[in-house]
Each structure stands twice: as C-alpha cells, then as structure tokens.
Amino acid sequence: MELYDKLQYCKSFFEEYIASFEVRDPGHIKNFAIKKGHSYRVVEIIEYISRKLGIEEEELVLASLIALLHDIGRFPQLVKYNTFNDETSVDHAWLSVEVIKEQGLLDELDEKLAGTVYTAISLHNKFELPNKMEENHKFFSKLIRDADKIDILKVIIDYYENKNRIPNHTLTWELPVGEGISEKVAKAAINGELVSKELVKTQNDIKVMQMSWVYDLHFKPSFQLISEKRYIDKIYNTLPKRDDVIEIYRSIKIYLENQFMKQGI
Ligand SMILES: [Fe+2]
User: Ligand 1 centre and the CA of 263: distance in Å?
Assistant: First the structure.
C-alpha cells in the first residue's frame, strides 16, 4: 500500500476508533476530545516543521502518520486506568505501538518504514533519546518529540489561562499547588537542563518542567513557533514572581533566543 493511502486509511480508522471509545465510556468524552484534538494538531505541527525543513514529500507523509498515531494508546489508557499518568498506569507510547500492531494498521507497509514509525512512537515520551540510533529513526523521533511538546504547551497554557477552568486531574497529575519551586527543579532549569518528571513535586514544578522542554527541542522551526506563540512568557505569567522563577525564566528565554538566531536547522 502506498504511504499516502496508508495515512488516509489510518485517519479514518482513528476517527472510528475514538468514536467507539466515546460510545463505551461517555464519562471521559472531554478527555478523549483533548487527546483527539492534540493528535490532529500534532499532525499539523509536524507537517509545518517538516515543510520548513524542506524534507521530501514521502518523508512528510511518514511524519504525519507518526504524529497521527503517536498517542493512540491514550484512549485505552484512560478507560482502563482513569489517568494519563504513565507512572501510575502504563507507558502510553508502548500502548500506542501495541494498538497499532493489534489493529494491523501498518500491515502491508514496507518493513523499514513501519520500523521507523514504531521507534519514533515508542520514544516520543522518553526523557531522552538513546545515544546510538539509526539516522532515520533519530530524525523522525526528534520530529515527533518537538511537535508533541509544542502542542502540549498549547493545551496546558489554555488550561492555565482559563479562569473558569474545572480542575482536570489528568493535566495536573493530582499534585498540590505548592508555593515555590522545588530546589532541584529550579536548579536544573537554570542550568539549562531538562527537568525530569521524578523531581516534580507541585503544580508549579510541572510548569517549570514544561518551560524546560525548550532545552529538548531540536529544530529551528520549533524554536520559532514557541517564540512566536510566546509560550514561555505565558507559562511564566501564571507563576508567582519569585527570584527563582525570574531566574528560570531568564535562562530559558536566553537559550530560546540564541537557538533561533543560529544558522542552519
Ligand atoms: Fe504522548
């Protein structure tokens, strides 16, 4: 099957798959909608980045396929465990690959291409990529990691900015609001390091961790998008104006500006 036809097939499958969850578990309709919207926007973002990078049309279709399916495991995860927290349930990236295999979505696809899809999806949520990777696997893994992070930032900023929000435990991990920032979290963010989930103790820590994702973006169009959409400023505006928060904000802003001023991709 041609790659483009495969993408079209997976798009209709995706619609039907989600619809079946909505019927089965209407209590989760809101969270299904969040993940459905997220998946489609990640497709748009990955296509945007890919176009800016000037990659071949076939590679762009492969990237879209990865983006469309990267979170398909979120639906069974929510139904089975009532959470999007992988730590207390299951690795949703692994589950996405399981669903794709179980449903035979990539059957008839060239084995190498399918391998790239599986690798990129299974690594999209990991703290970092393995050192040794096949070039192609590495490229598509980086693409989905960038596109995914950019859209998650949009989703959580919309949530933080909505004054009438109904608390959504799937977005705040049921953590206490907290007053300041945990010391280790602040230190990592100021030092230009990605904040690891294990260090996060409060909702403010989550916000700092999300700001620190800038340190794990790979492509210039990604930095440009974050900058244009003012995502870092928007998260910063929801945090208390403490010295550590200001220092974190400054470090991340400087890094961001330097990245997109750089030559090349
Ligand atoms: Fe994901």
Answer: 30
